[in-house]
Write a structure and sequence with these properties.
Elements: E1 9-11, E2 15-21, E3 28-32, E4 43-46, E5 60-62, E6 87-89, E7 102-108, E8 117-122, E9 127-131, E10 141-142, E11 155-157, E12 166-168, E13 170-171, E14 178-180, E15 188-194, E16 197-202, E17 207-211, E18 215-218, H1 234-239, E19 295-297
Antiparallel strand pairs: 1-2, 2-3, 3-4, 5-6, 7-8, 7-10, 8-9, 11-18, 12-15, 12-18, 13-14, 15-16, 16-17, 17-19
């Protein structure tokens, strides 16, 4: 009897896994064999091709954890706390060094974000971290400028960009630095011009305007398989700083509006937060915001009954 597919290999303490290569990205997913309960169904990103050393010390700073608490010590964001200690990598979201070519030295894992980061070195020797786009390889040369080649990692304002370009790390205010499409696998498409504004279509379906002076980086963000991971056990989420989430319907009436009742209940017709505010799909956006007029089509427009 012959085996079909890649042979299992040994990894980290004789744990056997299978790799499933993706066409769009050099990274792959690792599916583990269930030798322990925590490995049953475990699917992780294969980060073997990433740099394995420590980050550049000059480009890091300390990071303190808040545990979801504000300056008075009260929990304002539930279900946070613990987690592994992290160093913050200072990522350049502004890309202000125009017409100075830089070479990609390595691709690194960043514990503070879902995307990978790339260490680049400019011609004058200065180093910097940027968000690594898909199909960016070690040794590639990238540049930021008013009008540069359309290749992953190059950065330019929308005024010098052809319509139809796939972009990420998009500025909302000129010179402020990228704020849109920074998570793993995220991207937007430059679909048109309207006066002094550029029309971009976000991956959520929203169509909005930004000033043409705003910069964006060509390509989609790296690590698109991040959402396909299955962490296998609760302990791995604790390592990420996420605490358990208890549903309101299993609480007592004093603890949550959904609590109490005889037997199992669904939580009522209108789901609410512990403080009585509508949740699970309730609109919370302030339609009087100044940026509201820059949204041409809402991300909800494609949904029926909205």
């Amino acid at each position: 009897m012959t085996m079909v597919g890649p042979k299992p290999t040994l990894h980290s303490g004789a744990v056997r896994f299978r790799t499933a290569k993706r066409k769009t990205e050099s990274m792959a997913l690792k599916s583990y064999k269930p030798t322990t309960p925590g490995q049953r169904g475990l699917v992780l990103i294969d980060r073997s091709e990433l740099y394995k050393g420590r980050p550049v010390k000059a480009l890091t700073e300390g990071l303190t954890k808040s545990g979801g608490r504000n300056n008075t010590g009260r929990i304002t964001s539930r279900r946070r706390g613990g987690g592994a200690k992290r160093l913050y990598r200072i990522v350049d979201f502004k890309r202000n060094r125009f017409d100075v070519p830089a070479t990609v030295e390595r691709i690194e894992y960043d514990p503070n974000r879902t995307a990978f980061i790339a260490l680049i070195r400019y011609r004058d020797g200065e180093q910097s971290y940027i968000l690594a786009p898909q199909r960016l390889a070690i040794g590639d040369e990238i540049v930021a400028g008013a009008k540069v080649d359309i290749k992953p990692g190059n950065c330019m304002p929308f005024s010098g960009m052809p319509i139809g370009t796939i972009v990420h790390n998009i500025e909302l205010k000129p010179g402020k630095g990228g704020q849109i499409a920074r998570a793993a696998g995220a991207y937007a498409q430059f679909v048109g011009r309207d006066g002094g504004y550029a029309q971009i279509r976000l991956s959520s379906g929203e169509l909005r305007l930004v000033r043409q002076e705003c910069k964006a980086t060509v390509g989609a963000v790296s690590n698109p398989d991040n959402s396909n991971q299955n962490f296998g056990k609760a302990g791995r989420m604790r390592h990420l700083g996420k605490r358990p989430s208890v549903r309101g319907v299993v609480m007592n009436p004093i603890d949550h509006p959904h609590g109490g009742g005889e037997g199992r209940t669904s939580g009522g017709r209108h789901p609410v937060t512990p403080w009585g505010k509508p949740t699970k799909g309730a609109r919370t956006r302030n339609t009087n915001k100044a940026s509201q007029k820059l949204i041409i089509r809402s991300r909800h427009a494609k949904k029926k009954g909205r």
